[in-house]
Amino acid sequence: MNSERRLSVGVLGAGLIGVDLAMKVERSAALDLHLVAGRTAESSGLKQAARLGLPVAGRGLSSLSELNEPLDVVFDATNAGSHAGHADALVPLGTLLVDLTPSRIGRMVVPTVNDADVAAHRDLNMVSCGGQASVPIVRAIARAHRIDYVEVVATAATLSVGRGTRLNLDEYVETTQDALREFTGVENVKALLNISPARPPATFRVAMSLVGEGLTHDSVRPLVADAAADVRAFAAGYTVTSCIVDDNMAFIAVEVTSAGDQIPAYAGNLDIINSASIRVAERCAVERRSKEVMEVAS
Prior knowledge:
Elements: E1 7-12, H1 16-27, E2 31-37, H2 44-51, E3 56-57, H3 61-65, E4 73-76, H4 80-90, E5 96-99, E6 107-108, H5 111-114, E7 123-125, H6 129-144, E8 147-157, H7 163-167, H8 169-184, E9 189-196, E10 204-212, H9 217-232, E11 238-246, E12 249-256, H10 268-297
Parallel strand pairs: 1-2, 1-4, 2-3, 4-5, 5-7, 6-7, 8-9
Antiparallel strand pairs: 8-10, 10-12, 11-12
Helix pairs in contact: 1-2, 1-10, 6-8, 6-9, 6-10
């Protein structure tokens, strides 16, 4: 995709997620970073972004909405409580909003499950890091077996959990559970997030426990392997570390390491939701280009 076809992008929020996300946008052939907007010009994250040579501004959403041309895509990397206001403000501009907070406002998207939905919605919710790591595998198993109960426990290092996530722990749990129910059809689900103070920092890990019918080693392992391979297409550090099936119970564990942009290797929680968000925005770029080609042809 040549540069004139790239989608113009803004990143709202300059915390742990926002700066890494901006660097991933910079590497994308389909996206063109126009601005990283933080709450204040003095924030440490915005200063870090400036040192990296990224375009920055310190007036939050106002900095994005006052640009000469409306942006095609804005990534919201702030917090769930602020997202509704951001969404309302961007509606008149026709901007696609990709929400990395667990706000539960927009259409939930997990790239390997329903990225075909992205063209039909203007506000896309990326669920949570635990949701991105667990939904593809649980869905794959639930499509082949009757599942009665799902429990998903994510563990993230304290150094990889920023202020926004800490403010939204309840929303994280609720949104992850909502996504598991919607995409798997299983009603009895439970999600938990552990924040580990261990040193050295713990690598992001998600453990999934399932109870159902017909679960066997031979039936579950291929489903898990295929689902994991699909996720690795955009999150290379996604690895299945355990898959145990016994007496119609399955336990699957995955670890996610970071690709190493502006976050350490153990912070796979940040890497997987950022990588999924980039994947979604790039899908939107492909959809837009296809639409333009069809319009020209007609």
